[in-house]
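hiii, so i know i said id send this last week but things got crazy w the move. better late than never?? heres the sequnce for the chain we talked about at the cafe, plus the structure i predicted for it. fair warning i was half asleep when i ran it
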Amino acid sequence: MWGTAFRGFLVVFAVLGATAPAAHASLSVPPPTVFTNAAAFEAAAGGTDNGTKPGEQGSGFRHFTPGAIAVDGSDPGSTAIPGGHTAAVAPSRLQPWGLELGPAVAVANDGFSSVNSNAGFSPPNLWAPFNSNTTQFQIVAPTAQAGAPVPAVTRGFGAVFVNVENSGTTIQYYSGSQALLAQPLPVPEGATSFAGVLFADPVVTRVVITLGTADIFGFDGSNVTADNTPGDTMAAGDDIVVAEPGAGGTTATATAGVPVSASLASFGSSDAAAEITAAVNWGDGTASSGTVVPEGGGAFAVTGSHSYAMAGSYTATVTVQDFGGAALTTQALIRVAPRATATSLTCSPSPVAVTASTICTATVSDLGAFHITPTGTVAVSSPTAGASFGDDSGCVLGATATPGVAICEVAFTPTELPPAQARVDAVYGGDGTHVGSSASAIVRVRAQRCTMKALPARLKRHPAVLGVLVTCDARANVTIGVRASAARKGGLKAFSLQFGSLRTTVTAGRPTVLVVKPSKGVLPALHTATRRGQRTALLLTLTASSHATRTSTTTRVAALRIR
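okay and structure toks below
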């Protein structure tokens, strides 16, 4: 006979599919704790009221109040019922609280007196079924009302009831189609009363509620009908509290890309292991067979192994079926951690001239045993004043020939001359499989350097010019000044005068020919001195600077003889 031996991680057993033979249709769970006080129920559920937060929160509860629903037909999906104080509610209206309503449920703000003069319950904001005195609540994952309902489980459910004057008001709890209580839970009689239960594990998938022994009113979409029903045969519902829907505690932990083996469920059966099959839906779109492991005394466990590609929390659903067709379903929560990474950063060349660029290479490595290449982007920045990355604030990783290693590059340009060095920071943000990591690199920065070479030229040619070849390792503003001089000879005096000058900008790494034109009167003076046998020469001074540098670099070259 089917039975269960719940461990802390077990989520839910439910009978699915066709009705099984009587010998295999029994399902038992540890008896729940019964509550007759809403505050005590919430305290036992633990945590806080999660309200309408989307997604399973893992702990706490959700408290619904019917006064939150408008009765004039303006509430999403609702239908106003004649009388002006009652509205039929959309089945999805309570999805944010983790509940899917059965059909034909209404809310009222007058205690239903506008649809049945024998009602008029207090407090006035209530809910109740119409056309019947029975309704159900399906447990679903908390989502926005517009979302498709996703079946879920909970540890328990409770509600406040009004005008309970007979034993007809009850709650029955189900796991799938299997009733979890031998008899429906009777709601205490009274003007206002609370009834609810909490199971040790999340096993409840559905709740069926019967209110009194007669319905409050009928509604066919247009007209309201109310029999002359005695008030003591009717009851209505008020606040609802549901323990946080979800798979419950963590069954197993894993790392993305690394196979995890876990015991996913426990159950009891009089059948042999060979007559039982298990299937596991891992919650990531994949499924596989589970392994049924006998544990002695009619107890069995279901184990399975799986590798999750992405980090996150997954609800694995395990379905166990015996030879006779009876089936049980459990859910288990598996938390998958992202893979660790290490980021390194190198910049070359270093040192680099101010206003010149260096290439910084970020390398991101997977630190796991099974190498999975990281993807995504690396953001780069620098706290150093004047740092520039052009239009790039990061780079996209690309795979390398080494498994588990990816790289990307970005150009870094210091536009100011720092005291000694610049810092570049790289931050890898991670991807669905990997956690982020970061690194920094130090780049030494120096002033730009230029070289100068006078080109052979005969100054007596027309036009008489001086050619100079200038090469700088960074973009720079250059000034070339040329002085002409004649040495003393006998009674002839030595003299020096300004030959000429120019100013221009030189591109980094590109040899540039510059032409210096002589000032007026310089050439005749030099030619005269040459004819007299005086030794003449030119002294070239190159000053290279940038608006970003704090000092200028000056280079002097040897005298150039004029023949």
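btw The CA atoms of residues 149 and 538 lie 91 Å apart. thought thatd interest u
miss u guys!!
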